[in-house]
């Protein structure tokens, strides 16, 4: 793992964007793995600046998101489909038809998960996967105890994750209990992975992921086995290393 510690989240975003652009520019049919959450937003803004400056061509980019809530309509602004549209597809000028998000509304969720795996494979696999990290060490929605061999599947959200994500929901509104997420095996198939974390609240999870034992109790620790994993942190997120 290569660990890069930046002064602040803005610098981390710009460093990440440069890395991503370099990988995407090396291939004719680039495939980008995108994540939701607040952490990658500076990276998406920095990528949009590269596009606007003519330094990154996104016309042939295909994108796959990591996860989605089950039962959340795609036009609900809390859905990851809508979040990706607002934060990635539109600012980076991607073709909406080339941006894929797992279907949390599918009548047959199991078949939908298999179809998602097939779509990633048919696109040639992910060239570079952007990841945030949950306070409990999750990546995507692979909660502690997730199998390292897991593929896209239905998962129950951990109580801590539901608590962390409560901020997106109104008082008294029920936070979703289930999600569809790429598995750890799916994520590990990406040719490059870039884990981002900002702020003191992530410091413990980052230390466990980077320096702790490789354990399904900290799903992000599996990235220690990835041949091209880069971790980009601000100083606060790196404070327990
Ligand atoms: C959610 C997402 C993850 C994300 C995590 C951290 O649970 N499923 O992909 O990494 O939140 O979010 P944030 O970046 O807002 O801290």
TrEMBL record:
Residues 11-226 form the Glucosamine/galactosamine-6-phosphate isomerase domain. GO terms for molecular function: glucosamine-6-phosphate deaminase activity; identical protein binding. Pfam families: Glucosamine_iso. Keywords: Allosteric enzyme, Carbohydrate metabolism, Hydrolase. GO terms for cellular component: cytoplasm. It is an enzyme of class 3 (hydrolase). It catalyses: alpha-D-glucosamine 6-phosphate + H2O = beta-D-fructose 6-phosphate + NH4(+). The keyword Hydrolase applies. Pathway: Amino-sugar metabolism; N-acetylneuraminate degradation; D-fructose 6-phosphate from N-acetylneuraminate: step 5/5. Signal peptide: none annotated. One of its GO terms (biological process) is N-acetylneuraminate catabolic process. The keyword DNA-binding does not apply. The active site is at residues 67, 136, 138, 143. InterPro entries: Glc/Gal-6P_isomerase, Glucosamine6P_isomerase, Glucosamine6P_isomerase_CS, NagB/RpiA_transferase-like. The record marks 146, 153, 155-156 as: Part of the allosteric site. Allosterically activated by N-acetylglucosamine 6-phosphate (GlcNAc6P). Its EC number is 3.5.99.6. Belongs to the glucosamine/galactosamine-6-phosphate isomerase family. NagB subfamily. HAMAP family: GlcN6P_deamin. Catalyzes the reversible isomerization-deamination of glucosamine 6-phosphate (GlcN6P) to form fructose 6-phosphate (Fru6P) and ammonium ion. This is Glucosamine-6-phosphate deaminase. It comes from Acidipropionibacterium virtanenii.
């Amino acid at each position: 793992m290569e660990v890069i510690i930046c002064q602040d989240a803005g610098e981390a975003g710009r460093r990440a964007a440069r890395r991503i652009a370099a990988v995407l520019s090396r291939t004719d049919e680039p495939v980008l793995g995108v994540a939701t959450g607040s952490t990658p937003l500076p990276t998406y803004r920095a990528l949009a600046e590269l596009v606007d400056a003519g330094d990154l061509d996104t016309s042939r980019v295909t994108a796959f998101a990591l996860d989605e809530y089950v039962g959340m309509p795609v036009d609900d602004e809390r859905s990851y489909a809508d979040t990706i549209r607002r934060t990635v597809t539109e600012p980076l000028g991607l073709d909406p038809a080339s941006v894929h998000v797992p279907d949390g509304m599918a009548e047959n969720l199991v078949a939908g998960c298999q179809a998602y795996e097939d779509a990633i494979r048919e696109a040639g696999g992910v060239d570079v996967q952007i990841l945030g990290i949950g306070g409990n060490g999750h990546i995507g929605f692979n909660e502690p105890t997730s199998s390292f061999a897991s593929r896209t599947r239905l998962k129950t959200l951990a109580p801590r994750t539901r608590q962390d994500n409560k901020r997106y929901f109104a008082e008294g509104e029920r936070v979703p209990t289930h999600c569809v997420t790429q598995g750890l095996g799916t994520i590990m198939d990406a040719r490059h992975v870039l884990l981002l974390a900002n702020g003191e609240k992530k410091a413990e999870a980052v230390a466990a992921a980077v320096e702790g034992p490789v354990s399904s109790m900290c799903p992000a620790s599996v990235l220690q086995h990835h041949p091209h994993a880069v971790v980009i942190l601000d100083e606060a997120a790196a404070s327990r290393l």
